[in-house]
């Protein structure tokens, strides 16, 4: 079942209300990939040039697309499913059906494989956080 990708326009439980099979599963561990994609974006936005959930590609309960521009300037379209994340296109909102990139379990792993600048930004953020924890522990 496809749903609109804009989470602001839809209440979170819309999938249960519109599909009788899913309504019986309310409370079960059903993922909404739109929400997962938003969480992915919010988690690493500090370490990339630009990143957002696609509003032009179809979004479903089991799949979402994320556009990312790494700090080096290269743009990618990522697919997020239960299998993980993978590159499916080399531009925003572009899906190349012949693209056979490998799945990554985490966004960190995927971006680490694509962007040395991401790796550096992530490492610097981690270092700053550890230094802050050390300072707080000495106070």
In the predicted model, the low-confidence regions spanning at least 5 consecutive residues are 1-30
Text of the CATH class? Alpha Beta
Structural class by SSE content: alpha+beta
Please indicate the count of domains. Answer: 1
> What is the helical fraction, as a range of percent?
25-40%
Organism: Eleutherodactylus coqui
InterPro entries: GSKIP (IPR037395), GSKIP_dom (IPR007967), GSKIP_dom_sf (IPR023231)
GO molecular function, one term: protein kinase A binding
GO cellular component, one term: cytoplasm
Structure, described:
One of its GO terms (cellular component) is cytoplasm. Belongs to the GSKIP family. This protein is α+β, with helices and mostly antiparallel strands and 139 residues long. The chain has one domain (31-138): copper amine oxidase-like fold (2-Layer Sandwich). Helix content is 37%, strand content 19%. The chain contains 5 helices and 6 strands; from the N terminus they run E-H-H-H-E-E-E-E-E-H-H. Strands 2-4-5-6 form a 4-stranded antiparallel β-sheet, covered by helices on one side. The chain has a two-stranded antiparallel ribbon with strand order 1-3. Strand 4 and strand 5 form a beta hairpin. The longest helix is centred in the C-terminal third of the chain and has 23 residues, at 116-138. The chain is elongated. The chain starts with a strand and ends with a helix. The model is unreliable at 1-30 (pLDDT under 50).
